[in-house]
Design a protein that fits this description.
The protein has helices spanning 3-11, 25-34, 40-51, 66-78, 99-103, 112-126, 152-174, and strands at 17-23, 55-62, 84-88, 109-110, 136-140, 143-148. It is an alpha/beta fold and 176 residues long.
């Protein structure tokens, strides 16, 4: 790692506030009908973030609906209690997968390296099926936004291998 990168990482915030938003029609319907949040991927994201010294200041589940997704993310973007937003679900190729379409236009800057590296790491684990994910990240309103697949294994991979090692560094630059 370069000296500059080491310096930037040393100056980066260590503890951040996260919003975790799950985009899943089936999980949303179950939550509305039962009042129980059955969200394994969201639970994993929250646990990993907390285990690494971060706070989850907002957690929401929404249907695979552009308007609901945008509304939840805009609420997080406007909150002073959120530094980073992680969505899970809706990054595939089916017609109901609309998270990317709902959010990409909000990005002031895209972080293409996130999706590229995530797919490379996924390829090592699951093979060529990794091309199916359209996982992306970007910067909006001074916050980092990561759009992850809905699979628990994918979310864990993205968190441990890409997001957690760099999120403080990203936020440092976003706030300059």
């Amino acid at each position: 790692m370069s000296e500059t990168t080491l310096k930037h990482k040393a100056e980066a915030p260590k503890n951040l506030n996260f919003a975790v938003i799950t985009c899943s029609t089936s999980r949303y319907k179950e939550y509305i009908e039962t009042g129980r949040l059955n969200d394994e991927t969201g639970d994993i994201i929250v646990k990993v973030l907390k285990d690494n010294g971060h706070k989850v200041t907002m957690r929401k589940i929404v249907s695979d609906d552009r308007e609901q997704i945008q509304k939840a993310v805009m609420r997080a973007l406007k909150s002073r209690k959120v530094d980073v937003i992680i969505t899970s679900g809706g990054t595939g190729l089916s017609p109901k997968d609309v998270t990317i379409e709902a959010l990409r236009h909000l990005f002031e800057k895209e972080i293409p390296g996130f999706g590229e590296i995530f797919r490379m790491l996924s390829y090592r684990e699951i093979g060529s099926a990794a091309i199916i994910t359209r996982a992306i990240a970007g910067v909006a309103m001074g916050k980092a936004v990561f759009c992850l697949p809905g699979s628990p294994q994918s979310a864990l991979l993205a968190l441990k291998e890409v997001i957690l090692p760099e999120v403080g560094h990203i936020i440092k630059h976003v706030r300059e």
